[in-house]
């Protein structure tokens, strides 16, 4: 409020003040003479604050008096009489009655205005001084009209109700909301950081959930007829179920519940008829297939079927005594012979367990086998009487003429190998006949160069070069520096069992033939060519290879690197991986890598390959030793459509293998190291299981073991079974 005051000394001055109870909140003096002007200011405030209450005139209705003619005249009575005054005539019409003042109605009174904001209606009064306030005042001060009243309320401990629309309240509410949101975000970030730290260093690392210890093999045991205490056979048939075979008993264990679900004898004493040593080798490595209702076990000449829920053994009927058993994940083939000497082949399809039996006729006997061409003797090495060569001859004796070579060993085992191969809906019997025997000799070592000893002054830095020269000279003395390759012509016949209307297929191949079954097609490979057949023995296409087909495992030809996908066939020879179109055989791309041992697909258009990544000279000079070569192996991820390398993981290792299980990519690595301070203890044998990032190939976690030779590694997504010499461990880990 603007106040203008004139002091008795004649000085006029003005100032702005907020009155309290229509009075000055503080004393004021004249700026000229210093006299007290507080009362003068209070008078001005009272004059401005005084406003007469408006008078509202409300007209009232007054009924006119009755006319004289209408006034009844009372009848005179006897007794005392009082004179009546003359009647005054009452006018029948005249001016309206005078207005009567009445109290104004509160509903019709005009609203009071705020003393500060003249145009704003008052909606509340101050709880301290009672002054009217508008919404603008309340937004600034709340339920009080000024800072002074707020201080008075605080000093007198007057309760002031909060006003939700006050700026400080809304600002405090907004600030509180911002603080809560900020604290919430910071808490979430802190929790995420904590979870990341926990997951990286603790949560994602594998932890053993089951451990079984057993005696370790004796290192000085030189009697194979007395095997060490059997450790048993263990396999994960589900992420939380462990199947074990030990002491001729089969049991199923719940890993999460740490309990045995059931246990039952694998074979009765009357059925066995074998010694304990024979039983150990007989039951040491069965092929296990677990279906929804059953568990199928196939041994060398035994098929067993158990109920998965109860362990009850179910009979498997075959015509006669089982001679051999061959199994894959979808089929079991059993060759049996009755007492009359007639052989039959029984097919058991999985998972339903349906049986079909077909008699083996004389036109396709079961003992047909491939005999590799004889290997020529190596050329004799020249006799060198120098002292160094005398030492080499003493350390590396020359082979005797009567010593059987590798081809003879292959022929010996070939006669024992089962001729029937599971091939999808049917079984294949591969028959071959040698048409023309032919071998070629290839130079497998480089020509001998100048000797390190020729310089006459051998230094310590030349020690490795001298060791390399010594080893290569010894190898040259042993093999002549050459190797032979079988390029004989073979007539191959593919006969399909359990396919009566499918004719046989016959063709020629160069080199020892190999039959490789796939999902929808089969491959007949030999030398440097492959021929692709469908399941009805119709030849689809043929392709030439750059290098020879890799030799399969002695007992398992399925180790040859190959893979069939929806529209492509991947096949690796000794030096190149080729992607063929499945229907036409046209080559889409080729990837050069020496020593590819496995090809896998992840179902998302990517390939994972295991390879040695060796130099191409390693194929040409396969017997040459180079001490400076790094013994490294690789796991590579390729794009299946283009063959482009997405990432590669290189490690020094004797064995480096990739395992795909669900969305996870693992690597298994075996290698040896030598501590130069512990030469007398020999090398350390190391093992590691590593989880790789599928996107980059980087290590997520690793599980190492030292001097614990690994016998088996099996993975079921996040459940891992590791079998060592002295224990079985089941690992699990947490994954986001």
What does this structure look like?
β30 and β31 (587-592) form a beta hairpin. It is elongated and about 145 Å long. The protein starts with a strand and ends with a strand. The strands form twelve sheets. It has a four-stranded antiparallel β-sheet, with no helix packed on it. A four-stranded antiparallel β-sheet has the order 6-7-8-9, with no helix packed on it. The model is unreliable at 53-60, 75-108, 222-229, 367-418 and 553-558 (pLDDT under 50). With 736 residues, it is an alpha+beta fold. It is built from ten helices and 42 strands. The chain has a domain at 1-54.
Please render the helix and strand layout as text.
Blueprint: E1 2-6, E2 12-16, H1 38-49, E3 124-125, E4 132-133, H2 135-141, H3 147-155, H4 167-203, E5 207-213, E6 233-238, E7 241-246, E8 249-254, E9 259-265, H5 269-272, H6 276-282, E10 287-290, E11 294-298, E12 303-307, E13 313-314, E14 321-327, E15 331-337, E16 343-349, E17 354-359, H7 387-395, H8 406-414, E18 420-423, E19 426-436, E20 439-443, H9 463-479, E21 482-486, E22 489-497, E23 505-510, E24 514-517, E25 521-526, E26 529-534, E27 539-544, E28 562-564, E29 568-572, E30 576-581, E31 587-592, E32 594-601, E33 606-614, H10 617-620, E34 632-639, E35 645-652, E36 655-661, E37 664-673, E38 684-692, E39 699-706, E40 710-716, E41 719-724, E42 727-732
Antiparallel strand pairs: 1-2, 3-4, 5-42, 6-7, 7-8, 8-9, 10-11, 11-12, 12-13, 14-15, 15-16, 16-17, 18-19, 19-22, 20-21, 22-23, 24-25, 25-26, 26-27, 28-29, 29-30, 30-31, 32-33, 33-34, 34-35, 36-37, 37-38, 38-39, 40-41, 41-42
Helix pairs in contact: 7-9
